[in-house]
Amino acid sequence: MAVERYLQNAISDWMCDDGPESDIVISSRVRIARNLKDHPFPLLATDSQANAVINKVSETIINGKMKQIGNFDLILLEDLNDLQKKVLVEKHLISLNLANESRKGAVTLSENEAISIMINEEDHIRIQCLYPGLQINQAWEMANKIDDILEKDLDYAFDEKRGYLTSCPTNVGTGIRASVMVHLPALVLTNQMNRLVPAITQVGLTVRGIYGEGSEALGNLFQISNQITLGQSEEDIIRNLHGVVNQIIELERQSRRNLVEEKRFQIEDKVGRAYGILSNAKIIDSKEAAQRLSDLRLGIDLKMIKGISASVVNELMVMTQPGFLQYIANEILTPEERDIRRATIIRKKLLEIK
Q1: Which CDD domains would you find in this protein's record (predicted)?
Q2: Which of 81, 127, 178, 262 is packed most tightly, with the most Cβ within 10 A?
């Protein structure tokens, strides 16, 4: 089954490389929403209408001019069980919305998992491109290239005044949603996030948790993205996000420098305690694991921890999620069983690289 190759490893191939500003920016993502002309939106479509969209779009992706980009696998959500869908969500390969639309949803994935094209999510097509570090321009260029290829063979729903038509009014216009995942432990520790979030909102951006809208910012990880797609060009959206993120990077770095200068022993203690707990705990829940891994990552970035790479922390963040834990166990686990298995996985991983 094609999906198995995307479930076996917690870390995607594209995540193995360090990108620019990777000590703070985990990843850059651009998502483009598109719909087909003369086809009802997915929320209103019958099963037969939804299947027609899947067939049309997937045929274009797999056997059309998209071959110049690479090879793609088609995965039908109705063929997956709940754990498999959960793992794909935890790896950011599909959205929560698509996972809940198993009756008529699908996704095509590139071999390195950097490109995910969701079919029949909220819109007929959701093109998603992921890059490590701060590479939002590169993610946009790739998403735009894919969009141009698909538009040659698919008739998009488009209005001369409003732009690309989407199911949700907030996506009408360019249909683009650009975001970066950032690790901001110093801004959280210095209580600056409470002031920063409203300031970010005032410039047309929004701050969310690691799985997007409505999700929690576990492990000091935040997703910053544009709110508005109508009335702005794609280039303006990317430029605005890039500029704001650069300012946030500098604020985080300055906060880290201040913490090291003013509270070095406290930070070293925090990092050391995190490593000690992660290396020895017999049971740990997901929230504590995320926080301790965040502290460990901060220690790695500040050169307080030697011999452990940031990519190991990235991998553990996915490996210790509920879906992945249960998938590799091949069974449904109780919360306590998950907490025990989570602690075991972390201990073994850290022991391997000791």
Answers
A1: bacterial_phosphagen_kinase (cd07930)
A2: 178
